[in-house]
What we know:
Strand order of the largest sheet: 5-2-7-8
Number of strands: 8
Distance between the termini: 34 Å
Strand content: 5-15%
Amino acid sequence: MVQIEESWKRAIGSEFSKSYFLELKQFLVEAINAGKNIFPFPKQIFNAFDKCPFDQVKVVILGQDPYHSAENVDGKKLPHAHGLCFSIPPQAQKIPPSLKNIYKELQTDFGSEKFKIPNHGNLEKWAEQGVLLLNSTLTVEAAKPTSHSQKGWELFTDQTIKKLSQERENLVFLLWGNYAKAKGQIIDRNKHLVLEASHPSPFSAYSGFFGCKHFSKTNEFLVENGQSTIDWQV
């Protein structure tokens, strides 16, 4: 039985018995049994869901692939992936370039007095306030980007987005980059706010991510719809 937060189990638990998910599960079991390093650790695969229950979601940020990198911390290899898109564990020191650019945009958006760039990359505080940090693919083999794409995760996360779109109202979806924009086509834009920009990667951040002001626009929309804002400072 897949372990996932109870409200999500009610919302999307039927996916776990479908043939595509059973095949995905078998693929992961075989990879682990073959000694392959799979990121994130098994208990963190559904971290985004566990930290942000279905009925508490306010904002959805769509990522693509978990980080396939790791770093040495206290003599052990620490994966950067921990189940939240763009986020790294609190012990990790090497903040990824895309996250650095997210921090830069936050500081531009709110000003240096209201947002101070942190010295860590842990975004759990966002998740705990209702930001679902959802990667399209929830696992990856170490040092092999997109190695678990087209194995079934995309179907699962499509169903996640569809369920949120259908059963919730006045959510904010942040779609950065062409991949996220394409995946977000299933969102009902009459019910939800969808904000699109280029990806925060150094290769594309200057093509529309910098200056997008998605974070302040998100908070403005939440206030307009009677919800509390997100404190983006981490």
